[in-house]
Design a protein that fits this description.
Elements: H1 2-23, H2 39-59, H3 72-87, H4 92-99, E1 112-117, H5 122-130, H6 136-145, E2 148-153, E3 156-160, H7 167-174, E4 180-185, E5 194-201, E6 204-213, E7 222-231, E8 236-243
Antiparallel strand pairs: 1-3, 1-4, 2-3, 5-6, 6-7, 7-8
Helix pairs in contact: 2-3
Length: about 250
C-alpha cells in the first residue's frame, strides 16, 4: 500500500513538472506581426519595442546597440509581449492601457536627427536637390535608410527616416562628413505616457506601463502605473497597479 501511494505521489510530481515545462514558451526572436494587429498599430508597437529596447540596453551598457540598425533578437521579444497586451481582451489593465493610448515616450528619437550644414558644399546641394550626394559613403547611408532632408533654417536641417533606427549612431556617422558640422539625434521636451522594461527573460518579460496627465509639457503632475508580467505562452499577469486614480 505504501509503495502504491509513493508511486502515485511520484507520478503526480512528474505530471506537474511535465505540464509546467510544456507551458514554458519563449518569445520569438524574429519580428512577427500578429494577424489581428493592424499595420498602423503594428508600426506604433514596433517603435515602442525599439524605444524600450534602446533604453534597456543603454542602461545595461550593451555595445551592440552602437550600430545604426537594431538587431531583431534584441527587440522582437518585446514586440511580441506588446502585441500580447494590446490584443488581451480579459484584463482590465490591458483595456485601460488601450483606452488611454499608453505608448513609449518620444518616438521622434527613432526617426529624426538635426544637422548643421555647410550650405556651399556641392555634395550637400546635390543631396538637397536630387536625393543623392555624389559622395559614395553618404549615398550608401541615404539609400539604405532612406534619409530625407527637411529645412529648419538657413544652415540647419532635419534628417528623417521612415523606419525607426538608432539615430544617435546615425548622427555619429553623419558627423564624419566634413560638410556636416553638427549632428544630433532628436529628443523630446516634456513628459507623457511611458513603457519601461523591468525584467527580460526568453519566456517572461516584466513591463511597467504608465499614463501621465496634467501639464505634461512641463512634467506630468499625475501618473497611473500598471506592472505586468507577460509570458511567452501568451499569459498576462497584473503584478501591481498604483498611482493616481485614472481621470
Amino acid at each position: 500500500m505504501k509503495n502504491r501511494m509513493l508511486y502515485i505521489l511520484l507520478f503526480g510530481v512528474y505530471l506537474f513538472y511535465a505540464c509546467d515545462s510544456d507551458t514554458a514558451e519563449n518569445f520569438p526572436t524574429q519580428v512577427i506581426q500578429d494577424s489581428r494587429v493592424s499595420d498602423s498599430i503594428f508600426e506604433i508597437l514596433l517603435d515602442d519595442a525599439k524605444l524600450i529596447c534602446m533604453d534597456f540596453y543603454t542602461n545595461q551598457e550593451m555595445e551592440e546597440l552602437s550600430e545604426i540598425e537594431f538587431k531583431e533578437y534584441h527587440f522582437a521579444p518585446i514586440l511580441a509581449a506588446l502585441q500580447t497586451v494590446y490584443l488581451d481582451s480579459i484584463s482590465t489593465a490591458s483595456s485601460d492601457i488601450r483606452k488611454y493610448n499608453v505608448h513609449a515616450l518620444c518616438p521622434e528619437k527613432l526617426h529624426k536627427t538635426r544637422i548643421s550644414i555647410d550650405t556651399t558644399n556641392e555634395n550637400f546641394n546635390s543631396w538637397k536637390s536630387y536625393g543623392f550626394s555624389d559622395n559614395l559613403s553618404l549615398d550608401l547611408l541615404i539609400n539604405e535608410y532612406d534619409l530625407q532632408l527637411d529645412s529648419i533654417r538657413e544652415t540647419q536641417y532635419m534628417v528623417h527616416t521612415g523606419t525607426g533606427i538608432n539615430q544617435e549612431s546615425l548622427a555619429s556617422e553623419l558627423k564624419k562628413f566634413t560638410f556636416i558640422k553638427k549632428a544630433q539625434a532628436a529628443n523630446c521636451i516634456g513628459d507623457g505616457s511611458h513603457i519601461e522594461i523591468i525584467y527580460f527573460n526568453p519566456d517572461f518579460i516584466q513591463l511597467i506601463y504608465s499614463y501621465g496627465w496634467g501639464d505634461c509639457p512641463s512634467g506630468c503632475t499625475n501618473r497611473h502605473y500598471w506592472e505586468l508580467g507577460i509570458y511567452g505562452s501568451g499569459l498576462i499577469e497584473l503584478l501591481s497597479e498604483s498611482g493616481k486614480e485614472l481621470p
